[in-house]
Amino acid sequence: MKIIPVLVRFGVQLLAATLCARAAHPFLCADSAGNKVAIVSAAGVVEWEYPCKHPQDVWALPNGNFLICYETGAAELTRAKQIVWEYKAGEKTEVHACQPLPDGRVLIVEAGPSRIIEVDRAGKIAKEIKLEVPAAPVKLHNQFRGVRKTQAGHYLVSRKGENQIEELDGNGKSLRRVPVPGDIHEVLLLPNGHILVSCGDGHKVVEFDAAMKVVWSLDENEVPGNPLRLMAGFQRLPNGNTIFCNYLGHGHLGQQPHFFEITRDKKVVWEFADHAHFKTINQIQLLDFPGDVTKGEILR
Fold this sequence. Notes:
Blueprint: H1 6-9, H2 13-20, E1 27-31, E2 36-40, E3 46-51, E4 57-60, E5 66-70, E6 73-77, E7 83-88, E8 94-100, E9 106-111, E10 115-119, E11 125-130, E12 147-149, E13 155-159, E14 164-168, E15 174-179, E16 186-189, E17 195-198, E18 205-208, E19 214-218, E20 230-236, E21 242-247, E22 259-262, E23 268-272, E24 281-286
Antiparallel strand pairs: 1-2, 1-24, 2-3, 4-5, 5-6, 6-7, 8-9, 9-10, 10-11, 12-13, 13-14, 14-15, 16-17, 17-18, 18-19, 20-21, 21-22, 22-23
């Protein structure tokens, strides 16, 4: 289903919001400014919500539960909202990324302590990798965003405040750092060896090849009627299209769709806006695509 963005441009905002609230797919999402995670049906109906402070990552797990991280920790919970696993961060710490791993551990990045940890099912830290602190201090809130462990066991780190991607090996050795045009929010290793990056307030998305040469990008004004704001989470779909979350904070609440699906040739397939229920959708997982997120079968 494609929603016609011209309605917004003509100022018929109420009608546009009603139309855009029809979703092409059911999805799980995080609304950081709205302080909740939620499930939305393909009809656009909010079917489930769970309150938490500034959620960043959300995952639908193979067992039917949900893994989420929020400002002060991470948790796995059931649809009945029962917490079955939890990690609580210490004081002066913010958590802005988590990832379920094949061995049952949960990857977490902590701003403040500047570290990646893997936490086991008992809630104990099974592995710790210290992240280098820059000579010029970065404010705690701006240190890190998305961090992902690859199938090869390497770590891709979004160094938000340093405007860099860093790749570490499995022991934490830094293999390379690459500058990006913005305060990076998400990074993903694609099956072809390319790296997809959302550049936050750089108002841009960039895809690098294995040699870190730009092979595709999406710039601020290339989506008609939907300028790129703070580019946050995303999901690469099996057909090669990508869902990009366009975080609408920093002065843009209620003004345009929360996210859109776009093709390689930059055609919008569908987009979603529901300003009655959401403020800033910053991470997403479509729920009608099969695959095990712990094995990298869903590309996020």
